[in-house]
Amino acid sequence: DPKAKIVVVTNGPGIDFLIADAKDSKGREFSGMVSDLAGNGVEFRVCNNTLVSRNIDPDKLLMETKLVPSGVAEAARLQSKEGFAYLKP
Predict the structure, then answer these.
(1) What is the pLDDT of residue 2?
(2) Architecture of 7-82 per CATH?
């Protein structure tokens, strides 16, 4: 659906693919796939609480990401205020 808006909200270990130089099980960097998806309008939001608790520098995140205070709160806000549906793979 060309009108659909997709926002990927990550927290906990779910942020790992959005850290620079992160690779999949075949050694391919995620950055290219993330860049392609962002170029098609997909937004990537990362939980700052996770960064703080895991002592990860926000500068290590891919440039396509946006930092949000809490991933859980962001997902709840998107559902309650903006009509998004929550899908967990």
Answers:
(1) 81
(2) 3-Layer(aba) Sandwich (3.40)
Give the residue extent of every domain in the chain. Answer: 7-82
What sign results for the dihedral spanned by CA atoms 52, 89, 32, 9? Answer: negative
H or E stretch at 10 = strand 7-10
* Long-range contacts of the stretch 47-50 (C-beta < 8 A, 24+): 47/9, 47/10, 47/11, 47/12, 47/15, 47/71, 47/72, 47/74, 49/11, 50/10, 50/11, 50/12, 50/15
Q: Which residues pair with 19 in a beta bridge?
A: 61
Tell me the backbone φ, ψ of residue 18, rounded to 5 degrees: -100, 10
Query: Do the Cβ atoms of 10 and 44 come closer than 8 Å?
Result: yes
Q: How far apart are CA 80 and CA 9, in angstroms?
A: 15
What does pTM read for this prediction? Answer: 0.93
